[in-house]
Write a structure and sequence with these properties.
- The complex is a heterodimer of chains A (114) and B (581).
- Chain A has 114 residues and is mainly alpha-helical.
- Chain A is 68% helix and 4% strand.
- Chain A has five helices and two strands.
- In chain A, helix 2 packs antiparallel against helix 5.
- Chain A starts with 16 loop residues before the first helix and ends with a helix.
- Chain B has 581 residues and is mainly alpha-helical.
- Chain B has two domains: 477 residues, Sodium/glucose cotransporter; 64 residues, Sandwich (Jelly Rolls).
- In chain B, strand 3 and strand 4 form a beta hairpin.
- Chain B starts with a helix and ends with a helix.
- The C terminus of chain B is likely disordered.
- Classes of the chains: A mainly alpha (114), B mainly alpha (581).
- Chains A and B meet through helix 1, helix 2, helix 3, strand 2 and helix 4 of A and helix 5, helix 11, helix 13, helix 15 and helix 25 of B.
Chain lengths: 114, 581
């Protein structure tokens, strides 16, 4: 009788994504790569949203000096723009991102646990 | 006196909590990264507490007095850095499960050499960051009890070294969380009480209007500890020790004598110390383009350094391993964004009010003292004294917590990465490892403390800015490419980090040699991130692409970085299952 490790052969069609991943098959790599791409795409989307708001802000304030002459309660409008909405926007982007990223992880988990 | 008591209480509280924590510290893993059983809120408070340093607590307000609204970019950048960390690093790095940056570099790239390189960079960044904390401590103790500068440096250096050596990090997680709330209280309460006391921002015209800083309705008395060359931005006058009035015309400089009372009359223009600047009108209140420091190129360079540099700060990153899993790391980071957003509302108010209420700091040149001296100057008497005691205690909390975190990283790197290389063996046994960690904690403090003694003249925020620029030019590309790109090779990572490091540090030192130029492209020497970060990335990618020694198990590495927990796919999961079986 064989003294080597016993291997159970399961027809390809019946193998679950979990087995594909655990055995590092080509299919498993595709699943993994798809998750990684989705996560990266989500991060880049959040980065673009951040850049569209915050990245253009210095240039906007530089090119529109008029914002500095409009006073709101005696404080220049440019300072209001800089201090008040920016930090909540960071927080909102971060919160939405974290929710979506967890959801992507969960759908991957569903796929594998199916 | 009250201020001294408050500072003493903060210090004793920190030491006490550290000692209490030591009872839980049993193994090296405990000592280095607590025990990974800390909730997101505790963790977020601890990360924020560790992060809010002298630069945030006193540096931003001090810089704002000089360069005006462009200083606000600092607080925005310091916060935004956590967004970059959240988007690209937090969850994968936690899942990967390395303890420190050198651990990650070696495990990801299978190269002991790159571990040593990463360890060296950790020491450089930690050192650059530790110096301004000690400098802040020297300044603060000088304000509180008039002690010489070196006393404050020495006292905080010794306290922090002892605290880290006996407590490790388990203690420090709770100490740091406590310190965050203490710092938030200490920066928020005094300024809110003052705003209520004045019924809003006093002298708004002075804050944002067309005037240079000028003395209030009762004039100003200044007593200098050394003769000081000062310039009058507009025609003004002063009297020395009750003598006759000296008139000075606009733009002229005079030298004020030391150890006598110099009086600026009511409503008079305040003279400005050499090396300090006072601005007015839109030059002060424009966030971009008002000053040389606020030129768009420099603002962008600063934002790149802070946005990408935060993820490369060793003392911040090590804290993410105390999260139980990837989603918890994300939740923690979102909470950090919230806590920091709350904190950073306040320093800017001190800078703006300091311009109106403590204009004598322009004459002494010590604008970094504004947070510490504003309450008493604004509201003489017991109320002001108590508020000053609160801000001083908060400042001390800032120095203690950040330098503790930095020293844990430095000591961990010395005892874990550098020592075994030098001695060619790992110390065996828990007791021996703990002894090594303690020796390293004591030794790691010596050089930064010595540098702090000679670096008194360099602005706190400039020193901190260098640490961020170096982190953004070295560890940021290592993480971003190492986590998301399978083709990164050991040689590519090493070349990229060395290129970024050399570009950033040589720019900084050339800038120092040229006397910190502030105009045109030369100003980038002070804030080189916009050049050095792309150089590091491009080097890392091109060298990796031409390198034939690819990482053989890159796909398994990606699995370890990105696969969700609890699927039995990850090595750590299998270990857990094995332990349960």
């Amino acid at each position: 009788m064989s003294t080597g490790r016993r291997r159970s052969y399961v027809p390809t069609a019946l193998r679950s994504p979990r087995e594909e991943l655990a055995e590092a098959t080509a299919h498993g790599q595709v699943y993994m790569r798809r998750l990684q791409r989705a996560q990266f795409g989500l991060s880049m989307l959040a980065l673009v949203a951040f850049g569209a708001v915050f990245g253009v802000l210095p240039m906007a304030l530089y090119l529109i000096p008029h914002l500095n002459r409009i006073l709101l309660f005696g404080i220049p409008l440019s300072l209001w723009i800089l201090v008040v909405p920016m930090l909540p926007i960071f927080l909102a982007i971060g919160w939405l991102y974290a929710r979506r990223a967890d959801a992507l992880d969960d759908s991957f988990r569903d796929l594998v646990d199916r | 006196m009250i201020a001294l008591l408050a500072v003493g209480a903060v210090t004793l509280g920190t030491l006490g909590l550290g000692t209490w924590g030591v009872r839980f510290a049993r193994t090296t893993s405990d000592l280095l990264v607590a025990s990974r059983a800390v909730t997101p809120w505790w963790n977020a408070a601890a990360i924020s507490g560790e992060y809010l340093s002298a630069a945030s607590f006193i540096g931003i307000a001090g810089l704002e007095m000089q360069i005006g609204a462009s200083a606000l970019w600092q607080s925005l950048g310091f916060t935004a850095g956590y967004l970059a960390l959240l988007l690209f690093v937090a969850a994968p790095l936690r899942r990967y499960g390395s303890y420190t940056i050198p651990d990650f570099a070696e495990a990801r790239l299978h190269s002991p050499a790159i571990r040593l390189l990463a360890a060296a960079i950790v020491l450089v960044i930690g050192g650059f960051y530790l110096v301004p904390q000690l400098k802040g401590a020297g300044l603060a103790l000088n304000v509180v009890i008039g002690a010489p500068y070196w006393v404050g440096v020495a006292v905080v250096a010794v306290i922090v070294a002892i605290n880290v050596a006996i407590g490790g990090m388990r203690g420090i997680t709770y100490v740091q969380a406590f310190q965050f709330w203490l710092k938030l209280f200490a920066i928020a309460v005094p300024i809110c009480v003052l705003l209520i006391h004045f019924g809003g921002l006093p002298e708004r015209s002075a804050l944002f209007g067309e005037q240079y800083p000028h003395a209030g309705s009762s004039g100003i008395l200044v007593k200098l500890s050394a003769p000081q060359r000062v310039e009058f931005p507009q025609a003004g006058s002063f009297t020395v020790a009750g003598g006759s009035v000296v008139h000075v015309s606009a733009g002229k400089s005079v030298t004020l004598p030391a150890n006598v009372n110099v009086r600026i009359p009511a409503g008079g223009i305040v003279p400005v110390a050499q090396g300090t600047q006072a601005l007015r009108g839109s030059r002060w209140s424009r966030p971009v383009g008002g000053t040389a420091e606020g030129a768009p190129l420099l603002v962008y360079s600063l934002l790149i350094a802070t946005f990408l540099g935060t993820m490369g700060l060793p003392h911040v990153l090590v804290r993410f391993y105390t999260n139980p899993d990837g989603p918890a790391a994300r939740r923690t980071t979102v909470r950090v964004l919230g806590l920091l957003s709350l904190f950073y509302l306040f320093p800017a108010l001190y800078g703006a009010m300091g311009r109106a209420l403590t204009p004598q700091l322009y004459t002494t040149g010590q604008t970094d003292d504004v947070v510490l001296t504003l309450p008493h100057a604004a509201w003489p008497g017991t109320a002001g004294t108590i508020l000053t005691a609160i801000t001083c205690a908060g400042a001390f909390a800032a120095f203690l917590s950040t330098s503790s975190g930095l020293l844990v990283s430095i000591a961990g790197t010395l005892s874990h990465d550098v020592w075994p290389k030098v001695r060619n063996s790992l110390p065996s046994g828990v007791a021996a490892r703990r002894r090594h960690f303690r020796t390293a904690a004591a030794g790691g403090m010596v050089i930064p403390a010595l540098i702090a003694l000679v670096a008194r003249q360099i602005d706190i925020l400039i020193l901190v800015g260098w640490a961020f620029a170096i982190a953004a030019s070295t560890f940021c590309p290592l993480f971003l490419l190492g986590i998301w790109w399978t083709r990164l090779t050991a040689r590519g990572a090493a070349c990229g980090m060395v290129a970024g490091m050399l570009t950033a540090t040589s720019a900084i030192f050339v800038g120092l040699a040229l006397g910190e130029p502030t105009s045109g492209a030369f100003a980038l020497l002070q804030q080189p991130a916009i050049v050095s970060v792309p150089i590091a990335f491009v080097t890392m990618v091109t060298v990796s692409l031409t390198d034939r020694h690819r990482i053989p198990d890159a796909d398994a590495q990606m699995l370890a970085l990105h696969a969700p927990e609890g699927l039995g796919l990850r090595l750590a999961d299998k270990d857990a299952e094995g332990a349960l079986a």
